[in-house]
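Late entry, evening session. Most of the bench is empty. Finally got around to the prediction I had been postponing all week. Sequence below, unchanged from the version circulated by S.P.
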Amino acid sequence: MSVRERDGRNAYDSARRLAPAQATAGPSMSTPDLREPQGVSESDQARRLRNGLVSLVVVGVLVIGLLLAVPGLHGVGHLVAHMSIGWLAAGAALEILSCLGYVLIFLTVFDRAPIVFGARVALTEMAFGAAVSLGGAGSIAVGAWLLHERGVPTGRIAERSAVLFLLTSAINLLTLAGTGLALGLGILPGPRNPLLTFLPGGVCVALFLFFLVLPRLSDLGARTRGSGRLATALHATATTIRATRGTLLRPDWRLLGAIAYLWCDIGVLWACFQATGHTPPIAVIVLAYQIGYLANVLPIPGNIGTLEGSFVGMLVLYGVKATPAAAASVVYHAIALWIPAIWGTFGFIRLRRSLKEPLTPRATREERAELRRERRALK
């Protein structure tokens, strides 16, 4: 499953609960025949975001206080205080690129969404994912609410949210598999322990192969069940995975968005290590990052404390000294939390202010290709 997107299964489940079992994906962004999801309102979402941001500030202050007050953490605080400003600026720039990568892949998957509107929804998802204590369920769920509010059919939201989750998960699996196997085979520098290299790499290869054959298994299960909710769910699973596989394997430069979303965020951790002056091999950073992010499933505001502890544990396991590992992890998490949280909050505010503005769907990929062919023919 995904590591940074990570808590995406909880988020996807929340989106699925918005859709009736028989909902179908409509072709238009402006279908007006859906009711407001029960229990969801603008004030509820604004309050959750505000409370989440306040929680981040409070917990962040507590973490800083611990770094300054606990004797065993003085070394970490000293290293953080003397980090290279240039490398920290590079880390912030990489996090901005990661956010833009998510916006790009969101607009690729939700291909009918207007660009400005879709970008704001994607950034809002990132803000809620960073700030709201729902184990990640707040991110795609709030995106589903915003899309539903502007008339997108609930079935379309659930299906596209699933594709987005699976697509980013596939990039995570391929990255972890490739890095683990390359490290184990000696292609990349770092430890050679099979449990730290071949095991995570092999598990990811197995999961990716299962992902490829799952549509056939789901279709077989649906035929065996005949009809009913389970058969419908199995058929929907097969359809969604085929759509994801088609998007993943079809040549499209916009898939760089999913790669940038993951790799630029890993680059933030690498830049933070560079800022400390103690940089482990890149394969170690990638593996520790991806395995460590499993802590993000815990419903803690911003996962402050849990993610840092998970990162440090994995980095030490891969042979990195604890002090630079802790310093880089704390600063990485601050950058990876506050940039999407602040940027996405502004996106959410703009969405609320533009609520009554008309929403014009973008042309489909096929329609855009046909329009380009017609233009070339006229020249």
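Two things to note before I forget:
The chain is about 70% helix and 0% strand.
The chain has a mean pLDDT of 77.
Will write this up properly tomorrow.
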